Amino acid sequence: MVSVTWTVASFSLSPLQVSSFLVQQMHMSQTAMRASHKDFETAVNQMKLLKKDPGNEMKLKLYALYKQATEGPCNMPKPGVLDLISKAKWDSWNALGSLPKETARQNYVELVSSLSSSESSSQGKPGADSKQPGYETLVVTSEDGITKIMLNRPTKKNAITTQMYQDIVLALEAAGKDDSTITVLTGNGDYYCSGNDLNNFTDIPPGGIEEQAKNNAILLRNFVGCFIDFPKPLVAAVNGPAVGISVTLLGLFDIVYASDRATFHTPFTHLGQSPEGCSSYTFPKIMGPAKAAEMLIFGKKLTAREACAQGLVTEVFPDSTFQKEVWTRLKAYSKLPPNAMRTSKQLIRNVEREKLHATNSEEISALQGRWRSEECTNAVMNFLSRKVKL
Ligand SMILES: CCCCC/C=C/CC(=O)SCCNC(=O)CCNC(=O)[C@H](O)C(C)(C)COP(=O)(O)OP(=O)(O)OC[C@H]1O[C@@H](n2cnc3c(N)ncnc32)[C@H](O)[C@@H]1OP(=O)(O)O
Description:
Elements: H1 6-10, H2 15-49, H3 56-71, H4 84-94, H5 101-122, E1 138-143, E2 146-151, H6 162-177, E3 182-187, H7 208-229, E4 234-238, E5 242-243, H8 245-248, E6 255-259, E7 263-265, H9 279-287, H10 289-296, E8 302-303, H11 304-309, E9 315-317, H12 322-333, H13 338-350, H14 353-371, H15 374-384
Parallel strand pairs: 2-3, 3-4, 4-6, 5-7, 6-9
Antiparallel strand pairs: 1-2, 7-8
Helix pairs in contact: 2-5, 3-4, 3-5, 6-7, 7-14, 9-10
The protein binds ligand L24GHEU4.
Residues 156-157, 159, 162, 165, 194-200, 216, 219-220, 243-245, 267, 271, 273, 276, 383, 389-390 line the site of ligand L24GHEU4.
């Protein structure tokens, strides 16, 4: 990563320089659109060179994206229930709905690129899969049948850095396979999480903003995908205010317990951005479209009790007894038969799994455009130059 100068340097840019910077961004984004046909062909060839089998679920995703990219929305008659393989392929393609060909091409390219880079990063590292990572900004503990993943950047209100996104993915993957029965995400300090660390936008790689948007898209797709596919009961213990992506993800948790000090805030429009974490689908479903719009479009902040009344939060506890009450409750739940819990969770989530993955892809495509926009650039600069708080 080249350490960035644009946010700092741009404070002293003239309006002309700023507009030429933005024109350059627009030009780069058009170039990326034109390049994507070629990128797609390269990715199709790259797929054939993968050494590891990516697994059936991933193959179905790739199949669906390939068909959508080359033929558009699913136009085949639905196969019979006994033709299991054709039906799984059809379901996967059909779940992409009217996703534009261009977006499907782009998603296919990114998915293949993430598969190839994870393959090359694990090459030459014997035992890399089994090694337990040490996390810099997470504390992961396993006790009484509960794996607790605690965000641990209290002085930065647990804002999520790019490293943290990756670490949370690793921690969730490990928790999904360990012998605990329940997994809990919580925060250390007075905040649950203040969302995406806005400094993530200042790490510009050598390929510029275009490459940064692509990298962020890959990271975010994988990150949200892990929550969609998490196999065990997943609980959020929201110990304090929650902002941005830490709020939207709550729609993918099975239980959300909140302290009465917690608030729920998604200031996407203020940041020139748009919803993620599948909230454009889960929030209207949970609280109805009118309430969801007030949060996701206008950035209305909810108290814990309001969020509970809207169905986003399961139960609110007084802050003074939050930790004691939540952990006592969870310890009791963790003794329930684990396989029955997993089966019930999967039955609940499987109904809409493909829809959630398709929503994740569409939200990320929209965000890639937002990240390149003047509205987003200005909002991030304003926060980082201490002009605004959200
Ligand atoms: C890989 C890309 C994926 C992208 C996924 C997209 C996600 C979308 C979102 O999550 S949008 C939400 C982004 N979050 C915000 O906009 C919140 C910004 N923060 C604030 O508005 C405030 O800091 C606050 C309201 C959360 C807390 O205010 P308070 O006055 O109580 O505390 P401070 O502002 O003094 O914060 C203490 C220090 O923490 C730093 N900090 C807090 N949040 C963030 C953040 N999100 N990004 C970066 N830094 C953050 C803050 O700057 C202070 O740092 P300092 O002590 O060095 O000054």
